[in-house]
Amino acid sequence: MRAMRAEQFIGYNGLKLVELPRPAVTDGKVLVRITAAGVTPLDHTILSGQFHGVKAPLVLGNEGAGAVEEGGGTDYPAGSRVMFFGAYGVFEDGTYSEWVAVRKEDLCLIPDNVDDVSAAGIPVAYLTAQVALTRAGFRAGKTVMAPAIGGSIGNAVTQVARALGAKHAISSTTNHAKAQQAKALGFNEVIDTSLEGLADGVRRITGGYGADIVIDGIGGEVLSESLGALALEGSVTTLGYSASRKTTIDVTNLIGRQASIRGLNMFAQPKAAITEAWSVIVSLLKSGAIKPIVAKNFRLADAAEALRYLIEERPFGRVILTI
């Protein structure tokens, strides 16, 4: 089978198209023919040699969509369209390939109203969004802010929070054109940080109240600024560092508001939390309340260019490999 494998963790040039044996089906695993794979910042982090504990050579990609070939039993009979997320592409070979042996508990049936390309960009973003909101104590009527409306986490959190009854579902962008694009797509509570500060924008939209919950997938100064946007007893969940792994915070933003900050590692979540999150996400997908946005598709052989496009061009929406 064809696969795009990181032969070395040296950046884009480390990815090579190789021929590998099709994975064998063992107990508890299902052979899935991959039709599309999501491209994520984590893939770039690994390829750049900045993720601890991974070893080359490694086929990247920790989310994907495809069709069950064998091993799915009655739950996932042959031909079933499925999507999944897991440690694939991190601690074992992933979805930048034609076939993957997937743990059965990681699979989710793709709703009929969702195509495979869109489905490939659902698992990481929307599972993370739902798990993060749940852990933060979200309920209808809360105010939520998730920076970077064009990014996978910012967009997914904003959509899920809005669909589940948030009083405000706020996001941001540093780019005026993206702010206009977001508005055209129906995201009406987006702060253009080229025109005003993040905290100022949140206060404006909420009439001075602030955000009960911030889900930050960016890190760096965005995390620091997010603390200033919190409401009394609000919380920030940090789960990404595409802007930077380091920042400086004003502790009075936490002390004065009796606020909190926590981290989220999706690889450490209990299976029950993932199952519950899938249930919510699938229901919202079927109803049309949430809808993944795909910016661009690339062929498998162009995976390096797909990653470069994601990291350097920062498109509005997901980048997908079609296999």
Question: Mind sketching the topology for me?
Answer:
Layout: E1 2-6, E2 15-19, E3 29-39, H1 41-47, E4 58-59, E5 63-70, E6 81-85, E7 99-103, E8 107-109, H2 116-120, H3 123-135, E9 143-145, H4 152-163, E10 168-173, H5 176-184, E11 190-192, H6 198-205, E12 211-216, H7 220-227, E13 230-238, H8 252-255, E14 260-263, H9 271-287, E15 294-299, H10 303-313, E16 318-322
Parallel strand pairs: 9-10, 9-12, 10-11, 12-13, 13-14, 15-16
Antiparallel strand pairs: 1-2, 1-4, 3-5, 3-7, 3-16, 5-6, 6-8
Task: Give a brief description.
With 323 residues, the chain is α/β, with parallel strands linked by helices. It is 29% helix and 27% strand. The chain has ten helices and 16 strands.
What would the keywords be for this entry?
323 residues; alpha/beta; Quinone Oxidoreductase, Chain A, domain 1; Rossmann fold; seven-stranded mixed sheet; six-stranded parallel sheet; 16 strands; 29% helix; 27% strand; globular
When the domains are counted, the total is: 2
Morphology: globular
The SSE string, one letter per element, is EEEHEEEEEHHEHEHEHEHEHEHEHE
Q: Report low-confidence residues grouped into runs of 5 or more.
A: none
Query: What is the CATH level 1 assignment of the largest domain?
Result: Alpha Beta
Structural class: alpha/beta
Percentage of β-strand residues: 25-35%
Assigned CATH superfamily of the largest domain: Medium-chain alcohol dehydrogenases, catalytic domain
Proper CATH architecture of the largest domain: Alpha-Beta Complex
pLDDT averaged over residues: 96
- Kindly state the percentage of residues in helix: 25-40%
Tell me the radius of gyration: 19 Å
Total strand segments: 16
The multimeric state of the shown protein is single chain
**CA-CA gap between termini:** 11 Å
CATH topology of the largest domain: Quinone Oxidoreductase, Chain A, domain 1
Number of H/I helices: 10
Largest sheet: 7 strands, mixed
